[in-house]
């Protein structure tokens, strides 16, 4: 069975078994990528917490490279920047390094300790660290693009809400939640009571920002995530007269959309690379 057929058979389900099955589909290719692109500098401390760490990747010796920071998903509870024996979440940074950029993958604070808006605050802190330090590693601090999937996209959107002048050149949001649908009860431990969600959602920030956006959802994303994608695209069209860069990625689900980056299926990779080069 092909990877696309296997993903289609999973449908739009979420959960540990689906996550594991998606990882198995890409494991061989991703291990090859990990062998080709070892970490350049590990565990750079961008803040005081143990989770305030990021890794850097680079494959060329040039200077002033665009910087691409990846913010992983995990439902506000799980996830790691993924270098120590695991390719997951490091794959995006490695792929960006192979494209000729300075790739970065960050950790951030998680439940049960973290609460809104700490994930967004961590993104702001990581971006500020890169602004101060990227040039030491070959990066251009004026050309930082942040890429986030699922909870990572939420944290980037929250960073825009907290800092509308976030010093980045572009934003890539993969299957995020921005406030076009109701809060799910499972996310209340991070956000707090449902009645407080309207004041915390980043909808206005992502709808109004002048920072270039690339927005994506997957064919087999759960309906809530698809509704969020469509809501943001429609509001951007209404407000700005044009939709942002974006795509609906066929043949992928909520997990595989980010996990497959770095494999032979280059459709999303090529779109992100082109976006980074354009900003």
Describe the overall structure.
This protein has 279 residues and is of the alpha/beta class. It has helices at residues 3-10, 16-36, 90-98, 118-133, 151-162, 188-191, 197-200, 203-208, 223-240, 256-259, 267-278; strands at residues 41-45, 53-57, 65-71, 102-106, 139-149, 170-174, 213-220, 245-253. The radius of gyration is 17 Å and the shape is globular. The model has no long low-confidence stretch (mean pLDDT 96).
Q: Tell me the number of strands.
A: 8
Radius of gyration computed on alpha carbons: 17 Å
Main structural class: alpha/beta
Mean pLDDT across every amino acid position: 96
Count, helices: 11
Overall spatial form: globular
Tell me roughly what share of residues is in helical segments: 40-55%
Largest sheet: 8 strands, mixed
Write the H/E string, N to C: HHEEEHEHEHEHHHEHEHH
Gap between N and C termini: 39 Å
> Oligomerization state of this entry?
single chain
Beta content comes to 15-25%
Strand order of the largest sheet: 1-2-4-3-5-6-7-8
Uncertain runs: none
């Amino acid at each position: 069975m092909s990877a696309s057929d296997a993903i289609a058979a999973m449908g739009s389900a979420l959960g540990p078994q689906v996550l594991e099955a998606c990882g198995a589909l890409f494991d061989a290719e991703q291990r090859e990528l990990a062998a080709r692109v070892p970490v350049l500098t590990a565990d750079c401390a961008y803040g005081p917490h143990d989770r305030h760490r990021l890794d850097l990747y680079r494959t060329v010796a040039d200077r002033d490279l665009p910087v691409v920071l990846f913010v992983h998903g995990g439902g506000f509870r799980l996830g790691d920047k993924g270098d120590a024996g695991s390719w997951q979440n490091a794959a995006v940074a490695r792929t960006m390094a192979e494209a000729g950029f300075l790739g970065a993958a960050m950790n951030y604070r998680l439940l049960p300790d973290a609460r809104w808006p700490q994930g967004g605050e961590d993104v702001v802190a990581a971006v500020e660290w890169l602004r101060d330090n990227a040039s030491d590693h070959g990066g251009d601090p004026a050309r930082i693009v942040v890429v986030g999937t699922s909870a990572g996209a939420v944290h980037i959107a929250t960073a825009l809400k907290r800092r509308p002048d976030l010093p980045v050149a572009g934003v890539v949001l993969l299957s995020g939640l921005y406030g076009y649908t109701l809060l799910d009860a499972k996310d209340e431990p991070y956000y707090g009571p449902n009645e407080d969600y309207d004041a915390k959602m980043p909808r206005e920030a992502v709808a109004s920002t002048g920072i270039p956006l690339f927005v994506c959802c997957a064919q087999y994303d759960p309906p809530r995530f698809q509704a969020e994608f469509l809501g943001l695209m429609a509001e951007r069209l209404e407000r700005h007269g044009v939709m942002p860069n974006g795509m609906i990625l066929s043949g992928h689900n909520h997990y595989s959309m980010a996990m497959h980056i770095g494999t032979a299926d280059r459709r999303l990779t090529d779109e992100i690379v082109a976006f980074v080069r354009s900003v």
